[in-house]
Amino acid sequence: MIEWVFQRIYSSKLITPPSMRWKTLSLREYANIYVSSIKDLISFWEKQALNLRWSRRWSTLFSGVPPRVKWFINGVINAYYNVVGRHRGSWVWSKPALIWESEDGEVKVVSYEDLDDMVVRVSSALRELGVKPGDWIILYTPPMIESIVFMLASVRVGAPFEPVFTGFGYGELAKRIKARKPKVVVSVDGFLRRGKIINSHMVLRRALELAKHNALNVVIERVGLGKGVELTFSDLLHYGGGAVEDYEAPSDHPLFGLHSAYLDDFKPVTHATGGYLVQVYATSKWIGLRPHDTYFCTVWPGWITGISYVVFGPLMVGSTVVLYEGGPDWPSWGRWWDLIERYAVTLFLTTGGALRILSKQGDELVRKHNMDTLRAILVTAEPLEVSVWEWAYKIVGTGYTPVVDSNPEELTGRIPVVNMYIQSEIGTFITGNLVNYTFPPIIPGSCGPPIPGFHVDVISDEGQPVRGVPGELILRTPWPSIPLEAPEDFYSKWSNGVYRTGDYAVLTMDNYVFVLGRKDNVMKVSGYRLSPGAIEKTAMMVNGVERAIVLACPDDLKFQAPLLVLEGSINPDLVRKYIREYLGPIAEPKNVIVHSIVSELPLDDIRKTYCNPT
Amino acid sequence: MSSIEFKSMRVKLEGIAGVRVYFTMNNDHRILCIDILNPLNCNYILYTHSHPRHYPGDGIIDKLEDKTTVLSPMKGYLIKPGDVVRLDNILVKVVDAYEEGLGEATIHPKGLGVGFIVEFEDKVTLYHMGDTGLINEILNLEERVDLLLIPIGGDGVMNVEEAVEAVKSLKPIITIPIHYTDRRFFFKFRDMVQPYTQVIDLKRSD
């Protein structure tokens, strides 16, 4: 698999995009900044922490033995103030915070002031309803203004939240409800996806029954299917109740959580308030976000990129965030380009998988849109082939108005296309060319060099640093947003103070990182990190399935695709359907093979036979 | 077609420069229309001037029900720049809209048309500039503008560069360009003005 990936992503070309011609650092300049940051990481992150307002400054910046470490000890921070409240009284307060477009073209805009008004009202209602600091809130919604309001209201009352991606089915949602035991679950009465109404509220009802958990269900009214529900978002807006002060959170208070994929299942990971906010604010500015930016990120909150770079980072910076409800291919594959064009988007963040699919829809669809406002295209979630990078750089990024020495007629490229590495457990990007900080030349296919403040390395199986050959991507030191709570699988990845990410990578002599995919059998399917064990367990729930094994096959479109091998007497389509409903459509196997005795099958042979990327 | 909801109003474009504004007054849904050629279902109708892409003609207006309020410089309740008219709970401030020029070259001489700054119950303001050039009266306006509908086509109205100047002066939160047919005008306007406002290209229903 890693050879297959490496052939596609490796390049040694150094590219300086015309728009960055006079802002690009030499490799030596980059190295000086980076090395000085990791020489004294404590001071480095302390400086970044001072960019936030602390209600009580920490007594000790860092203590403990990795991975059981804490940052900003005894610090107290008002998280809501640092995300939204900080803009009160500045010009940002009246500007749009969120622009939401529904799949059928309706637009809603809220300013920072409007957003604050809604958050204050909803948080007051939550407090009236008995939500206390430390109570969990789970959201099962697509990107909507109301869901962002709920997340911020949770922050404001000190209730950690977990947004669950609506591509997950009722079984996975139930798992998260069981794990978090939320006091409130937030759903939407339905939303549009490719022209059809998705009844996500029914999925939530089914999940609550399965989890046997009683929680207050608040429903966001979107399509008019929520008649008779116990409490709606509008009810909360008009609930009244006394004024609630912003929650002053101890630095290690839980802020939000996710379920991250491990070999045997999805498991909860929780981030703490202080360290996370420090890390997400710093990296959000570095990747290029500014208050004047209008920013569109296609990753939904429900994945770490969506939480860090839709909910927290851009709002902390004061940017305007574009939220889109529906499918990228509705009514055509030009929908995202249309959004960028019509809202004057300046920064665009998407996944390698999305660009790969878009690149196959024809250049004309892109070129008929004018996206000259774009300053950078940021990419994440999975390895990005050189060919896809080049397509994005030339076809999407060249635009029509020259910048410095770009030439639209020759599609020379104009703005940076930057691939970056992130992981749920780490919380933010840790590698990549930084438009507003360290920007050496881009090497297409790479995830750029490490971001200052993160001591990234690649080591062999024996634990020795390696250059130019595959090894495992590691972090040599803990980071501020190290999880507050994580499964044993996470802690077992640490040895001698080093965190093994579980991803194969090649680190070049110039410190560029080429991430090659997972070392274990955890999968990346269209950018989604999926647990093979969760698929296997789900398949085993179907009557007649005696044994199930999931293999990750390379896939030309999705990067990887699950191959499900079953033992038993069973119709594969039934298993496929069950997985789709219980686990979610994103986990549906591409191929299902039924065999009489799976344990006798050599898995390598199966892989060779059935995993055939074209 | 698409509409935009911002604060208490929902705005939908219609025709070259027409707009329907949906809002609620005392729990009652109301529609304010500006430069709409088919003024069906409008509670309040405002016309900036009498040119055919903005005004359907006296015949259509004469057929409207008595309860519909019409404000314009030429029909219904006659208004002129400087007037302030209260329509139930909304306030309409009539402002200048004209081009500076000589003789017949001027399509919109002073005295022909007006612009409207509409203030809704919650103090949110919408400014429909009418067909105007970049005149001092616009640059001297002191009103806060939440949503601006600005002509950019240059055909008897501001061209792109002039419209950019107007936006820099008015500092609206949201700007929706109107009165243009060539999409390149939008791109040029958008690229120049975006740092000073949030430009939104709202698809029109024609």
Give a short overview.
The complex is a heterodimer of chains A (614) and B (206). Chain A has 614 residues and is an alpha/beta fold.
Walkthrough of the structure:
The complex is a heterodimer of chains A (614) and B (206). Chain A is 30% helix and 26% strand. Chain A has 614 residues and is of the alpha/beta class. Chain B is an alpha/beta fold. Chain B has a single domain (4-205), classed as Metallo-beta-lactamase, Chain A. Chain B has helices spanning 58-62, 136-139, 160-170, 183-193; strands at residues 3-6, 9-14, 18-25, 28-34, 44-46, 69-72, 77-78, 84-87, 90-97, 113-119, 125-128, 147-151, 174-178, 198-199. In chain B, strand 3 and strand 4 (28-34) form a beta hairpin. Chain B starts with a strand and ends in a 7-residue tail after the last strand. The chains are: A alpha/beta (614), B alpha/beta (206). Chain A binds chain B through residues 94-96, 99, 101, 105-111, 114, 292, 294, 320, 341-344, 346, 370, 372-373, 400-401, and chain B through 1-7, 173-174, 183, 187, 190-191, 194-195, 198-203. Strand 6 (107-111) of chain A pairs parallel with strand 1 of chain B, so a sheet runs across the interface.
Question: Which structural traits does this protein have?
Answer:
heterodimer; A: 614 residues; alpha/beta; 7-stranded mixed β-sheet; 5-stranded parallel β-sheet; 19 helices; 30% helix; B: 206 residues; Metallo-beta-lactamase, Chain A; 4 helices; 14 strands; 15% helix
CATH architecture of chain B: 4-Layer Sandwich
The mean pLDDT of chain A is 94
**What is the straight-line distance between the termini of chain A?**
14 Å
User: What general outline of chain A do the C-alpha atoms trace?
Assistant: globular
Give the overall silhouette of chain B: globular
Secondary-structure class of chain B: alpha/beta
